[in-house]
Amino acid sequence: MTIDDTMDNCLDMLSEQYDILHTFDIIQYKSNLLLLQQELVKLHKDVFFPNERIIFTIQEDVYNNSYGILLKSIQSIVNTIDISNFFIIILTTNTNILSEYSNILTNHSSDTRSFEIIQCSGIYNTYNDASIIEFSPHNTILSNVSDYTLNLLNDDCFCVLPWVHTQTAVSGKVYPCCNSLRSLPIGQHTLHKNIVNSDNLKNIRKNMLQHIENKECTNCYIDEKFKKTSLRMTSNKKFAMQIDNVRTTTADGSFNGKLIKWDLRFNNLCNLKCRTCSSATSTAWHKDATRLGYSDEIFKQPDNIIQQHMQYIDDVEQIYFAGGEPLIMDEHYCILDELVKRERVTVELVYNTNFTQLSYKGKSIFDYWKRFDSVSVGASLDAMGNKAEYWRSGTKWNIIEKNRRLMMDECPNISFSIDATVSLVNALHIVDFHRNWTDRGFITADQFNPKFLITPSMFSIIQAPRILKHKIKAKIQKHLEWLIPLDRVGRSTNGYTAILNAIEDNSAFDYDGFWQKINEVDEIRNENLLDVFPELECLK
Ligand code: SF4
Predict the structure, then answer these.
(1) Cα separation, 338 vs 285, whole angstroms
(2) Residue 507: its H or E element
(3) To test ligand 1's pocket by mutation, which of 180, 218, 454 has the most ligand atoms within 8 angstroms of CB?
(4) DSSP 3-state assignment of 294?
(5) Whose CA is closest to 116, among 33, 65, 68, 50?
(6) Is 19 exposed, middle or buried (0-12, 13-18, 19+ CB in 10 A)?
(7) How far is Cα 523 from Cα 296, in angstroms, rounded to an integer?
(8) Measured between alpha carbons, how far is residue 178 from residues 181, 242, 268, 300, 402 in Å?
């Protein structure tokens, strides 16, 4: 908005219209953007009232690039401390502000909603000053990260995980992480201590330090291509404190470090037989897979896998439990018991669970979770009612809702979110589910993380027929009008935006592959996709 009035008068008008929490004259912070970050951290609240605003006045900016460093830094800082752009007003004398900010919003904001921009009258000064460095989005928690760390954080190829983490999948194959290509494991039943400097992992590290993309990391690059926050990005932020140690990596990629993040899948024990899954990751699929003539495997890790890992349990800082279904696995409880015994309750527990079963062999998972400092539960739910029961067979929807109520009563402070996998089957329904659970108080609007499915490819929205893509696009765009003001950090919005970007892809619908996969399972389970998802009639 352009207002033909002075900055002071505009400030008066804004203070009548909004509840102004603070007004920052950005130029005061040009040499100390960390101070600005610290002051904003003090203003941060979990929930802002709709009428609250923070104002930044900009009457001059530093241009070492094509945009104002101070303007871009404001965007980076508010993103990283989780204040939605919705609550920010930029009041400036910069006559080019709209085009400049539009570039920053598109390329550098994790929140798709724009700041409120007001251009008022007055002089605007620009200058070049190489000593002023823009705020890095990665140094939020760290006021003292080294230049070495900052350089790596700003490198598109670098990911800290190969230095601090591996994933052992249910098959016993070892991967750099859960997002890396399944066709490219770095080991098989490899002992914890031997994998750290295996040739494959050394090569991945070496490539990253030489700015060479790794094939193993293709999925992260795809996410970033569609402007989805990738596991690479979140991991770099999460483990930024470890990055300085990377400098001790030798020329061949060897590294003498500890695996502080574990992702250890003990077997493929699971009580659901989801349509996008197979017997490779769910034992419940065994019977159907046999009837369909698919190769069927029941995986079990070596008996001593727990003992192997227990030797290193004092190194671990975060454990990611997934499956199969971790909440029905003995090994999961065995690790928790050991952590409790060693009083290592600061270890961060992160879950991906189907949320169907919260007690096991007389143990309530809540009794464990209450003892740990940090627990995050991501529930793999991506439809409700009979749609959930069809797509994730074995689900009883009334039990899921009962479990959520129980968790809210017993562990209200434990982080909970829905990790929804969006395929072309549930893409029209997903926003109804999101809205329903939010309106009924099971989650807040921002506790919903949609992520589009890539494989099996015949179910991917990337391959949806054009007519369905149009419908998905219209429905998600409408949903975003509701979501954006409620999505404080923009994470949920980011997921939907990635879906909108992904459906722009021109890949063709695999009609035969889709219907063969649906029909063969429908037949043996005596189900019918279109009875449950009648909105998919257009796929016929
Ligand atoms: S870049 Fe992505 S796929 Fe590669 S190790 Fe990091 S998180 Fe995993």
Answers:
(1) 31
(2) none
(3) 180
(4) coil
(5) 50
(6) exposed
(7) 19
(8) 8, 20, 15, 18, 30
Q: How far apart are CA 199 and CA 257, in angstroms?
A: 15
Cα-to-centroid distance, 517 and ligand 1 (Å): 30
Kindly report the three-state secondary structure assignment for every residue of 328-348: HCHHHHHHHHHHHHCCCCCCE
As a whole number, mean pLDDT of residues 388-410 equals 97
For the chain, the residue count is 540
Q: 81, 45, 112: which is closest to 483 by C-alpha?
A: 112
State residue 489's pLDDT score. Answer: 62
Contacts of 294 (CB under 8 A, 6+ apart): 278, 279
- Contact criterion met (CB below 8 Å) for 453 and 423: yes
**Torsion angle, CA of 441/318/175/338, rounded to 10 degrees?**
-110
Q: At a CB cut-off of 8 Å and minimum separation 6, what does 207 contact?
A: 157, 213, 214
Which one of 175, 208, 232, 239 would you pick to mutate in the ligand 1 pocket, going by the greatest count of ligand atoms within 8 A of its CB?
Answer: 232
How far away, in angstroms, is 530 Cα from ligand 1 center? Answer: 37
Residues with CB under 6 A from ligand 1: 159, 161-162, 176-177, 179-180, 216-217, 219-220, 231-232, 235
H-run or E-run covering 299: none
pLDDT score of 104: 85
pTM for the model? 0.73
Higher model confidence: residue 226 or residue 441?
441
